[in-house]
Write a structure and sequence with these properties.
- The chain has about 425 residues and is of the alpha/beta class.
- It folds into two domains: about 180 residues, Periplasmic binding protein-like II (D-Maltodextrin-Binding Protein, domain 2); about 170 residues, D-Maltodextrin-Binding Protein, domain 2 (3-Layer(aba) Sandwich), CATH 3.40.190.
- It has 17 helices and 13 strands.
- Strands 1, 2, 3, 6, 12 and 13 form a six-stranded mixed beta sheet that branches. Strands 9-8-10-7-11 form a five-stranded mixed beta sheet, with helices on both faces.
- Strand 4 and strand 5 form a beta hairpin.
- The longest helix is centred in the first third of the chain and has 21 residues.
- The protein is globular.
- The termini are far apart.
Amino acid sequence: MKRLLTLALLGVVLMSVLSSGCIGGTTQTQTPVTKTVTEKETITKTETQQQIVLKVIGPWSGAELDAFMEVIKAFEREHPNIKVEYKTYRAEDLATILPLQFESGDTPADVIAMWGWFIAEMGKKGHLLDLSSVINPDEYIPGILDPVTVAGKIYGAPFTAAAKPGFWYRKSFFKEHGLEPPKTWDEFVELLAKIQKIPGVKTPIVSGDSVGWPLSDVVEHFILTFGGRDLQLKLIKGEVKWEDPQVRDIFEKRLVPLLKAGYFSEPIEWTSAIDLWWKGDYALYFMGTWITGMVEDPNDLGLISLPGVKAMVIAPDYFMVPKYTKHPKEALELAKFLATKGQKIHVGTKSGKLATWRNVSIDDYWEPMKEVAKIVSEVESAPDLDDSVGGEWQKVFWDQLKLLWVQPDRLDEVLKTLDEKFPKK
C-alpha cells in the first residue's frame, strides 16, 4: 500500500509539473514561441517549393530587352507564384537547335519567341501545345493569326508587331540643310541627289545589315509601293516568279537605278549603322519602328514612306509553348498574358512596337509612336515576305540581296537564283 501511495503521489506531482510548464527550466511562454517559429519556417519552405520557374527565350537584348522585361515584371507581379527567367537567342540559331531537341522530347524553355512559319511547322509535327483555349481570334487584327494557325489550331500567341514604314530622318538634319519630305517619286529621287551633294554625307541612305534582313525590308517596301499587297502575297505563295515582268520592272526602274547612282551605302551592321546615321554620315535609314527606342531623341525623328505606298509590313512576334514543358498550365498563362495585357504594357515602353490586340488604344502608346501608329493604320497591312517563306530560301534571299547591293548589274542572276531556290509547293 505504501508503494502504491508513493507512486500515486509521484504521479500527482508529475502532472502538476507538466501543467505548470516548469520542466528542464523551460517556461510555458517559450513553448508556443518555438512552435510558432517552426510553423513560419514550414510555410516559407512550402511557398518556396510551390513557386514555379518559367524559362523564356526571345531575340531581344539591350534596349529592346529592357522594354520586354517591363512586361515580364508586370506578369510576375500579377502571378507571385511564378518567376520568369529570360535568355537571348537568335531565331536563326533556334531554327537549327529546336528541331533536334523537340525530336528528343526536350525543350530549352517553356515559352519561346520564334518566326510564324517555324511555329506552324513545329505545330504540324506535334511539338507544340494548342493555344486555342487562351487566344480569341476575334480580339486581334485580321490575318495576324493566319501564319500560326494549322487545321484550326492556334500554335502561336501573337505579341506586339514591328511595322516597317519607310526611311527615317532627323528633323534637325533636314532643317539645317533646307530639305523637305518628298510627295512624289520624282521628288524622292531629287531629294537623294540633293543629299548626295551635302559635305560630310557619305551616301544619302545607309544600308543596314545583319544576316541580311534589313535589306529585305527595303526590297519589300518597294514591292508593296509599286506592286501592292496582292503582289507580295503572290510572291510568298510562289504564284508569281521573281523573274516575272512585273517584279523585274520594280527592280529595274526603281531600286537598281538608286543602287547604281550610289544613293545606298554598302551593307553595314545595322546597329552600328544607327550611330553613323544619327551623327550625320548618312541622311536616311530604312528601319522598323523599333528604331524609335534606340536613338537619343526620338522626338527628332521624321519618317518618309515611298510616295504612293499601298501597304506596309506588319511583323508580329509570336510565342510558342512546346508540349515538353514541365509547367503547361503556367506556360499557357504566360502566353495569354503576352498576347493580351502584355501588349498594352509593351507599346507604352520605348519598344517602338504596335499592338496586334484590338483592346489597345492610341492613348496606351509611348508618345513618339502615336503618330506612327496612326500612319500605319491608314494603309493595308502585309506579312513579312522572307519570314513567311522561311527555311533555307530566306537565307538565299538575304545573300542574293547583299550581292545585288554591291553589284547591281547582276540583277538577272539574282532573280534567277531566287526562283530556282524557291521551295517547291
